[in-house]
Give the backbone structure.
Amino acid sequence: MLRGPVISVTRIVFLVVTAAFAALAGRELYASIRTASISIVAERIERGETVSDDIAAKYAARTIDIVDGHYCRSDIVAAGVTLVLAHLDRQNVNVKYDAWAAAASSARHHLQHALSCMPTNSNFWLRLAAVQSVIAEEPLSVGGMMARSVALAPHDEAMILTRFYFWNDLANTTLSAAKTALDSDLVTMLKLGDRCRVNASIKEIGPQLRPIFDRTWAGLGDGATARFRQRCSK
């Protein structure tokens, strides 16, 4: 007498779970189809292939579909980040300010969405800090974003060297606001970084960063920094 109802409940649960998985698969397939062209153009940019300004602008504009569609799949979100940043890089604030401002706003909006999906992505925090700094360098805000990037990837050499490039352009007030994070990056880079890669990165140091870098270098002592004086093969 009890077996029939048990079987019925099991079947119902199976059907509900199957339907849920089917709905999820359908949404993922729809997302892939809707963003396929965005991913293709982003991949071309990442491979260093030539993509015209018009094409970059066209597909950067389409990244709004990722935000509006609430897509959080990592490959889709990352493709959008590539496109909005590539489009922003091609703008000239001194020639077409309105176009630059629109591209900067779009990049910030997309990066904020990306971080809502992946709040532990160090690179996205760095890119948002960089975009915010060119829109309006608010020291506490930008410094906080840089600090978050450092906290999430404190020993990743590629990230540290990429961050160094951006540290080099930040204002004194922002560098001061992120002092602990900046010191951590510099010490890690000079203590543990690949000699040749670090040497290539520190060839040109901005006037704001120079005194901080020099203090860090001196504080580590000759024993820690002597290896950087060796020549690197090209």
The two ends are 82 Å apart (CA to CA). The chain has a mean pLDDT of 88. Residues 3-34 form the longest helix (32 residues). Residues 143-233 form one domain.
